[in-house]
Fold:
Amino acid sequence: MVNKEIVLEKINLVVDKLMNLGGADYDSDKSTSKEAHKTGVIARDFGIEEFDWPQGVGLYGLEKLQTYYQDNRYDSFLTKWYRNNIDRGLPSKNINTTAPYLTLLGLVERTGNKEYETMCLERAKWLMEELPKTKEGGFQHVTSAIGDRNGIALNESEMWIDTIFMAVLFLNRMGHRYQNQAWISEAEKQILIHIKYIYEKKNGLFYHGWSFQRNDNYGGIFWCRGNSWFTLGMIDFLEASSNQIDQGLYEYLIDTYKAHAKTLKELQAPSGLWHTVLNEEDSYEEVSGSSAMAAGIRKAVRLGILGQEYLPVAEKAVEAICANIDTDGTVLNVSAGTGIGEDSEHYKKIIKAPMAYGQSLALIALCESLF
Structure:
């Protein structure tokens, strides 16, 4: 069993670092080479201040920890963060800038803030009515344009596994909060269409994405953090759906999850982590994806979705995560933002750097180990 005192000590370090990551020189994206962008050197991704997916996932970790403590200790930080971004002006509407709304909805539920509630309602409506859709109605993985927070990169006809965590979790929670069956049904459809096109039935893993234009999965790579968005995201999706989900759909998703977890168990490195290209041992071991996997597997055991034989998998991963937390609370060996690549070398070349989502996902894994 992981030592609870050590975990709590690590949590405090990680939280302090997360909340003090600062900002980033956004304008530097405009002068950074395209080759550097391909290795994850995108200024807006760094720090905790920008309104985008790395920071949105970062806030989600604080909310999860707050839930564990059963108090509102981080609400003042969250309120200030959202206020600063609203006053600055929010960036373009896209899949990745929807990630912060997941935690904003939690703030609405706790405070009743009408301005925040209106923002959440408008974003849910936008996902339904205005977000570009792929063939068969998939959520197109539209992102912020590099160097222009008010612009977008359409990624036309592309679906990415990241979308499940960045946008579908939010829409599903909104649907259940407001008993809006259209939103619930759309969230369920998005889960199914992503499984249909990105899931590999031969091994239970997920590719990074799918292109309807190319009619393929790009390089066909099983990327660690991409898979982890499903490992953790699917469990949180099912938890939010409670007992309102159709039994047949529930069993289908559980069966898919079990096949996924089985392969992850087999691919776990001796250290307790997973490689950034899951099935290639010469790729570096990556902590953010490993953290989300540990959290998802541990939670699935707690909820009775996975058997007790998976508990040592999660505990071994948590021990490795603890070993990758520096004395100042920095979570080490976290890969930077990663676009879809044509081969495994693309993923192996992504730089490792302190990231808000790395702090957060480690935090969620540590927190889950305390239950």
